[in-house]
Amino acid sequence: MHPRERIVIVGASLGGLRAAEAVRGAGFDGELVVVGQEPHLPYTRPPLSKQALAGAIDLTADALAFRRRKSVDDVRWQLGPEHAAVVADLAAREVRLAGGEVLGYGGLVVATGLRSRRVPLDGPQAGRHALRTIEDAAALRADLLGATPRVVVIGAGFIGCEVAATARGLGCAVCVVAPEQAPMERPLGLRVGAALRRRHEAQGVAFRLGRLPVAMLGDDRVRGVALDDGTELAADVVVEAVGSAPNVEWLAGTGLDLTDGVLTDGWLRAIGEDGVARSDVVAVGDVARFPNASVDDVPRRVEHWSMPTDTARRAGPALLAQLRGAPLDPAPFAPVPSFWSDQYAFRLQSFGSPGVADEIQVLEGDLDAEFVAGYLRHGELMGVAGVGLMPSLLRYRTDLANRLSTPR
User: Is pTM, for the whole model, over 0.90?
Assistant: First the structure.
C-alpha cells in the first residue's frame, strides 16, 4: 500500500485508540498504524492513583485494558520504546521512530499526550516517584506497602490528593506540600479547595501549604524533604505530583505552534507558527490546545478524561474529509469537559469549564457534606463541581450541554 493511503497515529493511549476508531468510523479503509512508546495496548489511567494503587484492581495491562471496537481489529499496533516517534518531517510526510523505522503517511494524528513533571532537585532518587504509567504505579505501590512508610506528596492537585487518600487507606503517614493555599485551588477555587482540605485532615493527612521543597534529604535513598521555610519533613517515600508536560519534542522544527502542546483550530487541525492550519495533521487529547466554542475563542489544553474521546470524534472525520477534499463539518466544536476524582469514600465530579470562572457560588448543599458549586463568568454559569447530589449534578450537566452547545 502506498504511504499516502496510510494514516499514522502517534500515541497509543486513550486518544490514539479513540482516533483510530474515529477514522474507521468515518469510512477510512486504508492502512492504519498506531505507534507508542509504552509496550502496552491502550489502558485506563485513572485507577493508577486510586483502586489499582490500593490493590483493589490488578496492576496489569490486561486488567486495565480498554475494550476495543471490532472496527480497529486490523490496526497495526507498533508498541515499545523502539517505536517511540523521535522526528517528524511534515513536508515529506514521514515519522521516524526510535528504532530507525520511517513511516510515511497521508494523514497524521498527534496523540502523544503528557508526561509527569518532576521536581528539579538533586539528591537521592530511590524512594522518589511520579505517577503516569502501570510501571510507575507498581513501583509506588511496592514502596507504600513497606513498614508504615512516611509519605510526602509534593503537589496538591488531583493526582496528589488521590495518592494522599490512597496512601492513608494503606496506613501510611501522609503530608502534602504545595505552593497553593488550598488543595485543588487552581481548578476548583480557594473555598472549595479549603473544604476538601478539611476532608483530608479528618482522615489524618497533614498539609504544608504555601511552601516549596528546596532539597531532597538522604544518601542512597530519600529520607526527607527540606522546605523553603527551613522545615525538614521525614519521608520514606516522596511522590512528585507537580503536573504534566505535553510530549511534543518529536515535532520540534516542523513549524507547528508548540507553545503549550499542539495549537489547533476547531477541527483539531494542527496550526503552524504562520497561523495556517494543516490539512493532513490533527491533534487529539490533552496534547491538543484548541478553542472551545462553548467558552470563547481562546485555545486551551484540557487534561480531563472526556477530552480524548471528544477531540478524536471531531478530529477523525475532519482529517478524512481533508484528505478526500470534502467539506468540513460546519457545526461548532463545543464539548462540555467532565472529570471525577475518588478520594476516600467520596467522589468529586465536575462538568463544564470551572477554570474560566470569576465567581464561585454554592448552588446546593453544604461544602462539608454533599454539595454542588457553580462556577460563573460574568454572571453566567460555565461549570459545576460537587460531591454527592448526583441527580442535581446530572441536571446541571444536561443544562450546560444544551446551553453551551451554542457558540459564543
Answer: yes
